[in-house]
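Subgroup meeting minutes
Present: P.N., E.W., G.H.
Scribe: E.W.

1. P.N. recapped why we're keeping a running log of single-chain structure predictions: easier to compare across weeks, and new members can see raw inputs and outputs side by side.
2. G.H. added today's entry (272 aa).
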Amino acid sequence: MTRPPGRQSVKARLEQEAAELAAAERRGRMKLAAAAVAAVLLLVVVVVALGPFSDPTDGAEKTTVAGVELSGIPETRKKLTGVPQDGTLLGDPAAPVTIHEFADLKCPACQQYEVQRQPQNVDELVRTGKANVRIHLINIIDQGHGTTDGVGLRNAAHNLAATDKLWPFLSLAYYNQGPENDEWATEKRLRELAAGAPGVGASAINLRETSTSRTLNAAADELARRLEVRGTPSFYVQPRGTDTYEKVDDPVDGLGDAVADATKNAKPAPTR
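Output recorded in log:
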């Protein structure tokens, strides 16, 4: 299969990131390098499980909205239609298990997971009531590449949580993700994505920090520190009614089993 222009092979990606890590160490940025090493290792796990970067949209349908071609609109609608959305939570709030996903909207491995695996998770785990998913957006790609657009991108996504429009925007942002070392997440581009995201609309985009984005940014960062998250995407399962977070080492083939195990420790659902 021909690789789309601008997309590196997995080997090239890892070689490039290894060179960047070496340079970071030489500049004395040891803390950043350690985090980036973990991110590369996590990328390898996801890529090995899902396959190499060929078509990052997995053959998604293209639709023209206001003169702009966007990928993944029908796929996003199919994935999310009929599924409850409450802020950063997708699915039944009373489900016996919460899947906590730590992600960066500029992370290529997160994109690959969202496009190739998340629809199956939604169908098999969320729609069936076995689990819900809570997204925690953190900003690590900017740190590794010297970019700054991830800040506004995270704010924009978190601001949409206030009106339960985060998930369709997140999905479409992944389907149309730009190169991680480019500052592609401009206000113009995010409004284009929101225009195509089912139920969102261009006018809903706000890249500025608000009380909503500030609260969600801080909560995601604090939980990431507590759980010592070092790369994205990272997954944990939490049985209902507990403060226990179990790391899922294989989120591609092992998430269903992790949910089943966590269900055994779920507390009874609160009475309504």
